[in-house]
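Methods — Computational structure assignment.
A single polypeptide chain was analysed. Its primary sequence is given first, followed by the predicted tertiary structure written as structure tokens.
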Amino acid sequence: MMPRTVGPEDLLTKVREYLPPAGVALVERALEFATRCHEGQFRRSGDPTITHPLHAAYSVAELQLDAETVAAALLHDVQEDCGVTNHELEKRFGRTVARLVEGVTKLGQIPWQALEDKAADERLQAENLRKMFLAMAQDLRVVLIKLADRLHNMLTLYALPPEDQVRISRETLEIYAPLASRLGIWQFKWQLEDLAFRYLEPDKYRAIAAMLAAKREARQRYIAQVQELLKSELARNGIQAEVHGRAKHIYSIYQKMQRYVVEGRSPNEIYDLLAVRVLVDTVPDCYKALGVIHGLWTPIPGTFDDYIAKPKESMYQSLHTTVMGPGGRPLEVQIRTHGMHRVAEYGVAAHWRYKEGSGGDARYLERLAWLRQLLEWHRELAGAAELVEAVKTDIFQDQVYVFTPKGEVKELARGATPIDFAYLIHTDLGHSCVGARVNGRLVPLNYQLQNGDVVEIITSRTSRGPSRDWLNPHLGYVRTSHARQKIRQWFKRQERAENIARGREMLERELKRLGLQLSEVEEEVLRVTQAPTLEELCLRIGYGEMSSQQVALRLSHLIEPPAEPTTAPPTQRPTYTGGVRVLGTGDLLTRLARCCQPVPGDAIVGYVTRGEGVTIHRQDCRNILALERERLVEVEWADSGSVYPVAIRIDAWDRVGLLRDVSTLVADERVNMTGVHTDEHPDGTITIYVTLETRGIAQLMRLLNKLETVRGVISVERQFQPARQAT
């Protein structure tokens, strides 16, 4: 694959196709300055140095990016090769161009190590990866220019010594090609992969290339015949469709051959060397087209996949089938709508996303599509440079990239923990995980991994398997659905009786925190969970299909106050307003009753007082029974972001630093403590009464779960009167 010759006039012709006159003028000035700066300089290939920035700029212009990006591509080597300062570039071409050139120059100075060097410092690799992500977050165009720069360097790699060819090719295959894939820039991706493969596996590259070359003309004639026949048959059945031949590149063929060998299949079974793609208007048309194709040619058993009814985790959708086409030759056909095709083209990111990621997250999909569409929008908004200036986003914000101790990059959902990492590597590694080191330092198992972390999992042969706490969403041990599924499967395989007993224990403990007894609310528990029996519900909780916290949240309306509320001084701030709406009236002053302290999620009722507005009680508050029924009014919680006082009781073994640990955890949850009182007991235990300002039942339950993990804490329960204040 030799580089095409790109001259100054080729570039100017290309940019005149879509840039306004002012943009073309900027490119012309950058071209003239770059040519003058590089005059008399030559590359190792013997070509004038200016041919390199010209080629990079042409590749950027093919994507129809803005004038500043094309100009920066022309100038991207003048700082390093010609000594031109960033200040001079800014004075001549503006701040944007100067900043882009500086960003590309810095990326070019990253000393990527050869990944096969197992003894090399993995921290250096992690830091370099961080720099790449940072450059992308600051301005996406920097990375686009760098990809264009790398593409031409790969096209002229033949001029370098063999050891440099291998090093740069490995770097390209493991860093730059996946990056191009992630951005959806397919013309960069496949060229980078094929060029890198050519130098890393020259014999295999030549063998596949020769096989394709020997049959190229015949293959093209065959595909043309198939397209004509298929278009005619689809039209005859009333289906409007576009039919395209689908090219398969050398490296992708090699990858499929490798998979077939692993699966014990012959590489001769690779059917999609001959392939077409059918684009139709609607989903029903996809299935109609499938019927037409299967009626026209005999399908090969075991080769049909319906990714429309069951999309891939990356949200990719299409029908795949392989048929015996004309002449008895296997032919792969992909059928999808135009919308599905845009999703596939614009960044589903199947090459860099794992199954554990948030594949169903529509926002993530839209974000990738938007970034990919940025390249298309410039065709319509050629003069809107501010559009690209607004692209200051981190496209990896929902993903983190970490390293194994051997230097392999692994991708996880943001917020993932060492446990998620362990299950990503292997299910048994997750089951036997007892600890983790990140960057050589021991960390808790609910530590949230960061980009560039080197993660080492500590295992034990005597491990009894995963802990049920790992499935508690409030404790933050597991982020990915893959890990949760594997943990649940492990518990499902345990003894049924053990799971039932453990599930009942967890449910009773959770309800006790909120003042409920399971024996008293069993009927309501079954009603809100729709479980057939209490035993079945406990079984589900025991192996992790349902959490006890989920059940307790559905029972918040049943929370009963104590029979004889103890008297205690009021909290410092007893009245909270703005979080309750009185139905059927205008704005009225409201305050929360101190006797039952309702919080969002509780069923509530209002009582019209004399001169103090409306007092808000829980509907099951016993004080309501003694009030005048005609003065009760309907109220509901308003979505105002207000906070509400809740009293809790913590029983624990007394120790130095206990209160500090409790207050630190509460502060980390962004919850305010308005009152604290402690009672010490002769047996060495202590009771801590705390009044908290929470935003509702969900936040309260999350906090109660976390407080129970504090060292020495025996139990944590909600109280139904204000906590006593410290004197």
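Note: Confidence is low (pLDDT under 50) at residues 112-127, 346-397, 560-578, 722-727.
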